Amino acid sequence: MPDSASVFISHSRKDAAFARTLVERLRAAGLHPWIDVESIPDGSTWPREIQKAVEDAAAMVVVMSEHGRDSEWVERETLLALNLGKPLFIALIDDTPMPLHLLNRQYTDFRDQPDAAFERLIAALHRALAGAQPSRPAPGEHRFFSYVESLPEGLTSARVARALHSWATATLDSITFTGSQKPALNGNLWLGPGGLVVFSVRTYAQIAVLEIPLRHYAGFAPYDDRAERLALLDALNGFMPPDARFAPERADGRPNLPLPTALGDEAALARLLALLGEVVGRLRAAHRE
Q: Edge to edge, what strands does the sheet with 196-204 contain?
């Protein structure tokens, strides 16, 4: 388990030489860097260990380069740290422009006089860790889960909702909480000009449901093809009893799965998360082309 004052090192494997030097310098300065090649035990689930390490870290250093900018894992780790409100430091090692989510953030420039850059970065980390506060829930998070727990079959629904929240934190680009009287959780991807809500957890008739807004998927490849939306709807029907399955027209709507009955079983929830992972992978791949 990462130390409570650990510093998570987010880097591309192609920048491993610089990352190793960074780890050595941080250790020499009395800090506790966490780096995946050293810190994940054999037999562990890699994404789960990465998520836990970011959540437990007191700060993150992002090694930013052409390789780091192109790394999907660096992007996911950085977005998770930002979502959790972790102090985030950027070590810029080449002339790569900052990605969108890091624009207007200060960085430590290692392109010239790297020894002086290490000293500046280490001093900034010591200052941040000296005043580190426990991370707080995102605005609305506590109220959302309390509300879900108050519903019929609320404990089961809240367990499923927390699993969806954890998955979205590690996989998607952002999480938002909306609504006041009936709060909702939304998992989002930054695609196109306005982004896409991949799923929402909300309530209908006092039941917490997972809503998949296929009507909005229609604006994003490959799900702009109705046949693809129908195939996804068919996969969602696999979580519903035969007498409650979605009609084909719901491929242009917002089908929803009741959390306690459709996803309360651990195996069903695991299948659903795998399905969402496939959907997100296809969306990202289509928009990288």
A: 174-178, 184-189, 196-204, 207-211, 256-258
What does the longest C-alpha to C-alpha distance in the chain come to?
69
High-pLDDT (> 70) share of the chain, %: 90
For 193-240, the pLDDT digits (tens) are: 678 999 999 998 899 999 999 999 999 999 999 999 999 999 999 999
Q: Report, as an integer, the average pLDDT of 256-267.
A: 96
Domain boundaries in the chain?
Answer: 6-130, 141-288
3-state secondary structure 134-183: CCCCCCCHHHHHHHHHCCCCHHHHHHHHHHHHHHHHHHCCEEEEECCCCC
d(CA 135, CA 268): 31
Q: What is 6-130's CATH number?
A: 3.40.50.10140
Rounded Cα gap, residues 253 and 232, in angstroms: 12
How far, in Å, are 16, 118, 176, 221, 234 from residue 215 at the CA level?
Answer: 43, 50, 20, 13, 15
Using CB atoms within 10 Å of the CB of residue 273, give its burial: 0 to 12 exposed, 13 to 18 middle, 19+ buried. Answer: middle
Does position 138 have pLDDT exceeding 70, yes or no? no
Mean pLDDT of 105-134: 85
- At residue 139 the predicted structure's pLDDT band, cuts being 50, 70 and 90, is low
Q: State the Cα–Cα distance between residues 226 and 209, nearest whole angstrom.
A: 24
Which residues make beta-bridge pairs with 204? 207
The residues pairing with 87 across neighbouring beta strands, listed in sequence order, are none
Residue that is written with structure tokens 């909005």 in the block: 216
